[in-house]
């Protein structure tokens, strides 16, 4: 049998230890990293009748499941060209869609990406389309995708003496 901590072959008796909530078979050298399992102490619990409540919860939806379209890369230029073609100043357009002019300036300078409600107002007022539909093939990309390994999530700490 091998030690589940260091991996060396165990020739003598294995020691069962609890290390961060996991029960492991360890050699005598590695046993000090965890708590020995044989130190059991009873815990008193008050038992009370529990009513089982069944709720019909719908599974949570991911926000990204709703997203069908993505905003166009050159949204600022599209907005500016449409605004100028209809002979609106930034202030006039802001008054028509009931938003602040400074917000529209930042969007046209690409300092901000318009949120959905503002995007819909701009699309309606300027008769433009700011979103594009992307397929799954466009989003996947190429290359090797590596799965998560134990090394990606494990935190190895030494026990303080």
CATH architecture of the domain at 65-137: Orthogonal Bundle
- Count the strands? 5
Order of helices and strands: EEEHEHHHHEHH
- Give the CATH topology of the domain at 65-137: 434 Repressor (Amino-terminal Domain)
* pLDDT averaged over residues: 76
Strand order of the largest sheet: 2-1-3
Structural class: alpha+beta
How would you describe this structure in keywords?
161 residues, two-stranded antiparallel sheet, alpha+beta, three-stranded antiparallel sheet, 11% strand, 434 Repressor (Amino-terminal Domain), 7 helices
Describe the structure.
This protein has 161 residues and is α+β, with helices and mostly antiparallel strands. Among the domains are: 1-37, no CATH class; 65-137, Orthogonal Bundle (434 Repressor (Amino-terminal Domain)), CATH 1.10.260.40. It is built from 7 helices and 5 strands; from the N terminus they run βββαβααααβαα. It has helices at residues 63-66, 75-85, 90-97, 101-108, 116-126, 136-140, 150-153; strands at residues 15-19, 22-26, 35-36, 69-71, 131-133. The protein has a 3-stranded antiparallel beta sheet with strand order 2-1-3, with no helix packed on it. A two-stranded antiparallel ribbon has the order 4-5. A hairpin with a 2-residue loop joins strand 1 (15-19) and strand 2 (22-26). The longest helix has 11 residues, at 75-85. The chain is elongated and about 90 Å long. Mean pLDDT is 76; it is low at 138-142.
